[in-house]
Amino acid sequence: MNILVLATDYPKPNGYVASYFIHIRNKAYLSSGVEVTVINFNSNESYTIDGVNVISVKDYKKFYSTKEFDMLLSHAPNIRNHYRFLKKYGGRFKDIIFFFHGHEVLKTNEVYPTPYSYSKKRINLVVYLQNLYDEFKFILWRKYYHQIANKSQFVFVSKWMYDMFFKYINIEEERLSKRSHIIYNCVGENFQTQTYLKDTAKKYDFITIRNILDNSKYGIDVVSKIAETNPQYRFLLVGRGNYFKHNSKPNNLDLIDKHLSHQEIIDYLNMSRCALMPTRADAQGLMMCEMATFGIPVITSDIPVCHEVMSVFPNVRFINNNSTRIEITNIYEKLKDSEDNHKIDKYFDRETMGKEIELFNKLRGITK
After folding, report:
1. pLDDT tens for each residue of 175-214
2. 48, 199, 253, 343: which could join 235 in a potential S-S bond, CB 3.0 to 4.6 Å?
3. How far apart (Å, rounded) are the C-alpha atoms in residues 1 and 357?
4. Count of structural domains, the chain
5. DSSP state of 240
6. Which CATH number fits the domain that encloses residue 322?
7. Which domain holds residue 310?
């Protein structure tokens, strides 16, 4: 079986890690015997990474346009790249699978929280133009999905993402019900194979890890507020951004301004008693899924998607982002009392990427 994957951006051999969640899937497909070719819309050159063949649009037109692929996968389809490619070449593929990860089917100004004042001013024109663009993309995709529904499959990374798709794209749910699948993103291998060392000496009481501190959906202001109102605890925040150039940093909060590898994340988790991972919006929240799977106690936000993805974990509790004072001690004490060494496999590769491979095999009539 050979598949073509569309990606707006993709990791590169030089350490660039954009859209790594797609690369993890592709490596799993390769391991199962599936031949994978990726079109990276953000690259002008073709290359190979971890055995995955990555090509530019230019090289697809030049060398691959006559090659037959068993199916086409489109991750987080956008108008500029995916839609244009699909309109031109989509007829060549018998099966098309769309993977929905977030913004591509959401009305931005309704779902995402207001940006921090220093990062982007919410002037009326910006809001108006974003709403206009969102309505435009909804119209285009709604028409296109109707046209090709009979040869398409739709994969959502959470039930919340599924609900948002039908809310904003506004296609009859019944029409796509047999072609829709909820398959969660897979946690990293390290979080599957290693387990939190709860009895080792701890340096921090609470740890928060976010790649982008300036995105208001990740609630760095909530973390900062909790640290300020709980000076008896020591907090660690890992991530890059300008938040504390515009806001005061609590004295009991240490900041590591870098991105960590999976093993480095695990090392810091083992130095900490609890993960503090508030969020205001997310399609799944893979990082908190990785932490909960690893086994460290996790505190996250009381919003629907967090309840959906965290419901199977006994080591998770929820907080109200908008509380003026969050009583973190009581929450953590309850977490300690409910600690369970049982490893939850909901987001292991066999329950995630394994389900995707099962779907591929079903479409190709392969029984394993």
Report:
1. 898 999 999 999 999 999 999 999 999 999 999 999 899 9
2. 253
3. 11
4. 2
5. E
6. 3.40.50.2000
7. 189-346
